[in-house]
# Entry
Amino acid sequence: MFNSEVSKSAFGKSVLAAALFAVSSFAFAADANGIGKTITEQAIAPWNISVHFDGDGLPAGKGSVAQGEPIYQAKCAMCHGEFGEGAKGYPKMLGETVEHMTELAKKGEDTVGVRGINSLWGHAPTLYDYIRRAMPFFAPQSLSNDEAYATTCYVLYIAEIVKDDKLVCDASVLKATKMPSQDNFYTDPRPDVKNARCMKDCAKGDPVVTQMAVQGVSGDTSRNVAKPANH
Amino acid sequence: MSDKNITVPVNIDEQAVANQTRRSFLRKSVAVAGGAVVAAVAANQASAAAQVTEPLAIPPTNKILGRGVVSIPYGLPSKFEAHVVRRNVEWLTPDTIASISFTPMQDLEGIITPSGLHFERHHGGAVDIDPKTHRLVVHGLVEKPMIFTIEDLKRFPQKSGFWFLECPANGAMEWNGVQMDSVQFTHGMVSCTEWVGVSLLDIMKAVGVKKEATWFFGEGADGAALQRSVPLPGAKDQFGKPISDFDANTIYKDIIVAYAQNGEALRPENGYPIRLIVPGCEANMSVKWLRRLKFVDKPLVTYQETRHYTDGMKDGRFRQYTLVNETNSVVTFPCPDKKMSGKGSYEIRGLAWSGRGKIKAVDVSVDGGKTWTEAKLVDPVFSKCFTRFTLPWEWDGKEALVMSRAMDETGYVQPTLKQLIDERGTSGIYHKNSIQTWKVSANGEVHNVQLRSL
# Structure
C-alpha cells in the first residue's frame, strides 16, 4: 500500500520525466544512487535504545530496589523528592492514586498538579527507557543498563506500584509489571464538539463576561494568579 | 499649543526618547503627543479632523551619513524593535531547560514568523550540533538500513511548504479561567515558517520500507533524546484499536526532514541541523535535532505519549494520540498588548490555522458573539499554515467584545470554551482551540476575558 504513495513522490515524477527524455545522454531520473551508506544493525546498536510499551527493546541486565536506592538518593532525590513527592517544582514520582485522580476529575476538580508515575504512565518498560535515555536530568545517558534497571525498580517501589522491597528488576519483571494507569488511555475520538456557524441573533441577551485577567500580567512573569499548568 | 492640532506621533517609544541623536527633534513632539494621548483618551475624541500647522522639523538622519554595507554582516532588527522578543513564564516550569517560550503574536505581520521569534519548547535544552559530524540513521522494518550525512540529505529532491507548528499546550493556562493578559501568552505557542527539506516518502523509498511497517518514530540527538511515534497506514494503538483514517493515511504524506527555515539553515532552537516537520500535528512530533528514524509495527507509547501530550478527560481517562491541532484563530489587533488610540477607523487583524487543511472562513464579532461578520482572508491561503484575516472596524469608542471564529475546509467550526469544557472538563491541558474574547474598554484598554455563557 505504500508503494502507490511512494510512486507519487518526487522520485516517481522524475523517473517518468527521465523516461520521456531518454534521448538525452544524461540520466535525469532522480534516485538515491550514491546517496548515503548502508549500515549494519551492529553499528546502529548504540543508538538503538528505544523500548516499546510491551518491553521490546529492553536490554539484558538487572538491578534491585536496594541497588536503586543509593543511586536515586544521590542523583534523583534533589529534584523528585526523597520519597518521590517531587521537589522545587519538578515532577512527582508518587502522585495521587488513579482512583483518587479519577474521583477528582469526575468532581470537576483539577488533576494537573497531582500526577505521578503511579497515576499517569503507560508501561514499566517505557519508564526504564525514559530513565535510561533522559535522567538524571543533569547527565542524561550516564546510567549503565544495570543502574537504569535498579533505579527504575526503586522508582516503581517509591511510587507504590510494586510493594516488594526485595524485588530485582530485569526485562521479564518489567514486562510483567502492570502499571495502575495502563488501561486508562484511549485513542483520539475527535472531532468531539460541533459548533455552528451562526451569523445573527446567536446569543440571547447580553453576553456575560465571567472572568477578567489581572491587569499587567503580560510580560511580567512575577505576577501570576494560579498554579502552573504542567505540560 | 493646541492638543487638537497634533495627530502624530502618538506613541513614542521610551527608548526612542532616550536616543541621543533624536532627542532634540523629539523633545517637542513627545511633550505635545503626551498631552494628545491624555486628551484623546479622556475626551475620547476622534482625531480625524485634527490638523498639523507647525512646520515640520528636518529629521536629523537627513543630515548625516549612515552605516556602510556589511557593518552588520548578518542584519538585525531595528534597535527600536527591542521589545519584540520571545518571552517565557517563569512559574510554568521549574527551570528554562525543560521549558517553553512564547512568540510575540501581537507583533507578527503577514503569515511568517521570523526564525528568531519562533516559539521554543525543549525537554533537555537547545544543543549546538556540528552538521559535519551529524548523521541520520533510518532502519527498522526496511530492506536497507541506511545512514545519511547532511550533504547526502541535500542531494535528495527538495520538498518545502509553509506550515505552522503549534505546541498542543497552547492556551493551557486558560482552562480554569483567565490567567494571561497578553496574546503572547494566551496564543504564542504557535509559529509559522517556510520549511525546506526532504520528503519522508523519498527517504522511505531509498531504504525500502516494508509493508509491515505501520508506525515510525523519530528520535533527537539532544539530552532528552526525545522520541515520538507517528502513524502510517494500518496503524493500531497499544490496545489493537485502529488510529483514525485521517491520522494514519494522510499525516505521513506531508512529512519532511527539514534542514532549512525561512530561507536559511534551521536555527539551533528549532533543531539545527535537521528536524522532522509533521505538518498540522502537535509540534512535539516534529522531533528536533533528529538523529534516527525507525520503522516499526507498533507505537512506542513513550513518556511523550502518556505522561505528556495526553488529554485528561472529565471521566478520569486520558485521550492519547490527539495528534492534529484543530482549527484555531485569534485577533492580534486589538489585543491586550495593542490597545486602541481613540475612536475612528481601524482594521481588526488576526491569524487562523487548522491542522486538517486550509482555512475556509473567519468570522469576527465585536458584540460578544451575538452577530458575526465574515472577515477577508488575505492571500496566500495555504493548507496547515497561518492565514491572515482582516476586517475594517469603525470604533465608536464604546465597550466592545472582540472575537474571531475560524472554519476550515472540512467544515469544522472553531468551538467555544464552554463547548470544550462541557465535553472534556478542565484538566485536559492540551488542545484548547476555543474562541478567544478581548474586551475593549471605552478608555481604549484591551483585556483578556472569557464568556462562559456562550
